[in-house]
Design goal:
Elements lengths: L20 H17 L4 E3 L2 E3 L2 H6 L1 E2 H5 L5 H4 L7 H15 L3 H27 L6 E2 L3 H14 L4 E2 L8 E2 H17 L8 H18 L10 H5 L14 H22 L6 H16 L1
Antiparallel strand pairs: 1-2, 3-4, 5-6
Length: 284
């Protein structure tokens, strides 16, 4: 019933509940502190001196072979320069703030960590025996971007040098295509595009397992719907009552989603369902 919905009840003060935005700001603060505290590589007389602490925190195959397995996580909080840090943290705040309150502190933290670790592992697999190293929160950021699009696909962004607002789902797909093109086209200099793609993969797996009820748009839905038989246009005898109940459940789920994420989170199909339901009930 409508009166049973959370947003129709009188508000009650929260008791001992942590604001999920605190974990978002906490991650940003940790990244900033790591950038300030950890000594940076220095160039002197054409030679590069890399501090021991720096070597032990960035991700590399030599470091892992020495038993520094914490690098899979610590490298996510290391950044090459101020702009690297600034762009990653701004993106994390921009996209993370769109859904962190909806999924809560625990799920957001798991999403962030899993995305970053998956990104690091994909880079490692493609750079086996390399002497290079990886650092940055980009893999985790790309996982957060995917989550923002899957939970609110119709949220719109204004992009610099682009004249029209762009939907979150379109923005993410463009980014993914760019990363794939850049990686296999060997563009982008020292940017670890595979780490970004790994962040997408890790986030998608976690969302499908742990946050399935929050999904408003699935970029790979065409894979799961393939081979699914289409429903018959003629209902069988005795199914009218069941169909009516199923329709009510669909409308109820869409209204719950509307109350949680706002009108921009609804897909075109969901808007059509609400419109049809509204017209139907006006006739009764």
């Amino acid at each position: 019933m409508l009166s049973d919905r959370d947003y129709m009840k009188s508000s009650r003060p929260a008791v001992n509940k942590t604001d999920p935005m605190k974990i978002l700001f906490g991650i940003i603060v940790i990244n900033a502190l790591m950038y300030i505290i950890v000594p940076k590589p220095q160039i002197s007389e054409g030679l590069v001196w890399i501090p021991k602490a720096y070597k032990e925190l960035v991700l590399s195959w030599p470091g892992l072979k020495d038993g520094n397995f914490w690098q899979l996580v610590s490298s996510m909080f290391m950044h090459a320069d101020f702009w690297h840090l600034g762009f990653n943290m701004y993106g994390l705040y921009l996209f993370g703030s769109l859904f962190v309150r909806s999924v809560g502190t625990k799920h957001f933290l798991w999403l962030y960590m899993i995305s970053g670790v998956f990104g690091n592992m994909l880079w490692l697999m493609a750079n086996y025996h390399s002497q290079g190293f990886l650092l940055g929160a980009s893999g985790a950021l790309f996982g957060v971007m995917l989550a923002a699009a899957m939970f609110g696909p119709n949220n719109q962004f204004l992009i610099l040098f682009f004249p029209q607002p762009i939907k979150a789902k379109t923005l993410v797909m463009v980014y993914a295509a760019f990363e794939i093109f850049s990686e296999f086209g060997k563009f982008g200099g020292n940017i670890a595009h595979l780490a970004h793609l790994g962040g997408f993969i890790g986030a998608y797996i976690y969302i499908k397992i742990a946050l399935k009820r929050h999904i408003a748009w699935d970029p790979f839905s065409f894979l799961w719907s393939r081979g699914t038989p289409k429903p018959s246009s003629r209902p069988r005898a005795g199914t009218d009552y069941k169909t009516h109940n199923d329709n009510l459940k669909n409308v109820d789920a869409i209204l719950d989603k509307l109350s949680r994420f706002g009108a921009n989170s609804l897909t075109d199909d969901e808007r059509d369902v609400l419109k049809q339901a509204r017209e139907k009930y006006k006739k009764h």
